[in-house]
Design goal:
The strands form 2 sheets. The chain has a 5-stranded parallel β-sheet. A 4-stranded parallel β-sheet has the order 3-2-1-4. Helix 1 runs antiparallel to helix 2, helix 3 packs parallel to helix 5 and helix 9 runs parallel beside helix 16. Helix content is 43%, strand content 10%. Strand 2, helix 11 and strand 3 form a beta-alpha-beta unit. The protein has 3 domains: 131 residues, Tetratricopeptide repeat domain (Serine Threonine Protein Phosphatase 5, Tetratricopeptide repeat, Alpha Horseshoe), CATH 1.25.40; 75 residues, Rossmann fold (3-Layer(aba) Sandwich); 142 residues, Glycogen Phosphorylase B (Rossmann fold). The chain is of the alpha/beta class and 396 residues long.
């Protein structure tokens, strides 16, 4: 269809829909047509640049995003789009400068504050990152809505107080940050941790009251204070040096008995894919066969990519392993929280801030080792390094 000023707005909407549906190549092609028909539109160029980023066409994306900034220097979204490119391509200083420019133009924009906060957290600048990260509650698609209750906890003394902790985001986030519930109870609070059904049996071992989250409306106790789970480290002033890193989860005895002997002695559990969502494909391997070099190095592989039950069930199986090898999924956080050896394969593109930048270890989990793609899409390089490390450590 020939683009004209009469139909270009409809094509804007169609291109955006294609991109949101994960049909990025089609979206990029349509955005390119829109740019050709309306070359003076900074919005079209920014959207084309964003689609090209997802396709790994970074030089072309940068050219379009820089043109958008030049055309609309007072538009915060233009600077934010350029910042996102720099973030995803590991140009940290350039990303920070672009986000700072965007934030100066729109200081209350939650998406920009969140993006800059995640960058600071990735770089280990927790003092700056945690306050900015609070913007997640106002940003779309974060699954972190604040409760309609008074007295959100902001670091006040907790001795003798009742504290309700509300879950947010995904299972991995809840597994990682549940460590703070017993920390706050040790500070004198009577802690109630709300958790989804998949986590309640496992979290029962934390030593705090655990309440199962319901799909519909819930009757909650009236606490003296409440907090979102991932707000706690910021309220405590947590730094890289003060992370409570000792193992804090244990396998329930009934699950240990249920799964006894599931894995053979010396086995390596593998999780080669995460949930199949449009924004998650970069984290997963193409198939279990991608880990053939690990098997060739002598590992007996047990595929744990399919759900076994709840996370207490998975914990019981992980506890039997010599090693868990996983892509970036909740299983990595579970193994780390149990203190079990775990090697995590991380993508070069969109590596999550929770694993920080440029490290092969995690201050959150001493038992975890990180194997990063050396370049965009290069799983072969990461897996070869992991297989060599396995041969050296477990087979020598």
């Amino acid at each position: 269809m020939r683009l004209t000023q009469d139909n270009i707005q409809a094509e804007f909407m169609r291109a955006g829909g294609l991109q949101q549906a994960g049909r990025v190549a089609e979206a990029a092609a349509l955005w390119a047509e829109i740019v050709a028909a309306s070359p003076g539109s900074p919005e079209a160029r920014a959207n084309l640049g964003g689609a090209l980023v997802e396709l790994g066409r970074f030089a072309e994306a940068q050219a379009e995003l820089r043109r958008a900034v030049a055309m609309a220097p007072d538009a915060a979204w233009a600077h934010a789009g350029l910042g996102r490119l720099h973030l995803l391509t590991h140009s940290w200083a350039a990303a920070e400068a672009a986000y700072a420019a965007a934030l100066a133009l729109a200081p209350d924009d939650p998406k920009i504050r969140l993006a800059l906060g995640q960058l600071c957290l990735m770089l280990g600048d927790y003092a700056r990152g945690w306050p900015l990260y609070e913007a997640r509650s106002e940003a779309p698609s974060q699954n972190a809505p604040r409760l309609n209750l008074p007295n959100e906890w902001r670091g006040e003394p907790l001795a003798g107080k009742r504290l309700l902790i509300w879950p947010e985001q995904g299972y991995g986030d809840q597994l990682q940050f549940a460590r703070f519930a017993p920390v706050l109870q040790a500070a004198g609070a009577a802690v109630t941790l709300v958790a989804p059904p998949e986590l309640t049996a496992l979290f029962a071992g934390l030593g705090v009251e655990v309440m199962e989250q319901q799909a519909g409306p819930m009757t909650l106790p009236t606490p003296d204070y409440w907090s979102l789970l991932l707000s706690i480290p910021g309220r405590l002033g947590t730094t890289l040096e003060t992370i409570p890193a000792a193992p804090y989860l244990t396998v329930p005895q009934d699950r240990r008995a249920r799964w006894a002997g599931h894995a053979p002695p010396g086995a390596v559990g593998v999780v080669w894919r995460g949930r199949a969502t449009a924004g998650n494909t970069h984290r997963s391997l193409a198939s279990l066969a991608a880990l053939a070099p690990l098997a060739a190095a002598g590992a007996t592989l047990v595929d744990l990519s399919e759900p076994l039950g709840d996370f207490a069930d998975l914990a019981a199986v992980i506890d039997q392993l010599d090693l868990l090898v996983t892509v970036d999924t909740a299983a990595a956080h579970l193994a780390g929280a149990l203190g079990k050896p775990c090697w995590v394969l991380l993508p070069w593109f969109r590596s999550d801030w929770r694993w920080l930048a440029g490290r092969d270890d995690s201050p959150w989990y001493p038992s975890v080792r990180l194997f990063r793609q050396p370049a965009f899409g290069d799983w072969d390089g990461a897996i070869s390094a992991l297989a060599a490390a396995y041969a050296a450590q477990f087979r020598s």
